[in-house]
Amino acid sequence: MTIDSVFERHRQALFGAAYRMLGTRADAEDVLQEAWLRWDRVDRAEVEEPRAYLFRLVTRLALDQLRRVKARREAYVGPWLPEPLLTSPGAEESAELAESLSMGLLVVLETLTPVERAVFVLREAFGFSHAEIAEMTGRTERAVRQLAYRARRHVDARRPRREAAPSEHREVTERFLAAAIGGDLAALLSVLAPDVTFVADADGRSETPRQPVRGAREVAEYFVSVVPFWPPHLGVEITTVNGGPGALVTTDGRPFLVFSFDIDPAGRLREIDAVLNPAKLPAGNRVQR
To answer: PANTHER family given for it (predicted)?
Structure first.
């Protein structure tokens, strides 16, 4: 298949939009594949604004996909987290764009309706006007304004706030990993915020909590209790996950889990997300806008 230069020029942005709307790389790639097939059949001479046209294709396909995966996610065993993306340093063009990719925000977006989520992503992450979004979603401009307002209010009430400086990320991540793997209760308590929440996504394939664990003492004691069950030959790579602090843990060189962290102003972990579902741990998950 001949590579279409117009589609390829916008591929990263289209993937970024689809991923933010859907939360998994696989679903986003499916949408991009279908968008390419439809774009390949279009008379390009009749398309005045290729970028807007392609975003409309991807948005409508993503909305259809969101409705299809709803039942699958409702049957998921335990908490469902977005598929983590290991983002290379400098991949994101701005703090606002990185925030729109964060695990914490993507979890909040799961609580929106499909069209609210699409409107929020198009408006907040990609800067489209209400009129442009109305064309992409098949709504009126007035309806889009209302959807954008509702989504923004909902997200602002629930989204985590990243106030820690990036220079603090590596230090607190290193301290947590050493304490968690080593089973050091005191060290864990020193790095956890009092109201910390731990969420593990394994889809029933690992013995992980089926509900979020909350509170510093409870989270610390959980990690101490599972020390004997860490697999052998562990490797740890501190990296950027979805634009924020995180780590990839491997066993014999194979991905075992991905941690994503949210850090409070005091430099303590207030959210720990762990993805262990093998289906969400493919190699090379790196993304740009």
So the answer is: ECF RNA POLYMERASE SIGMA FACTOR SIGJ, SIGMA 19 FACTOR
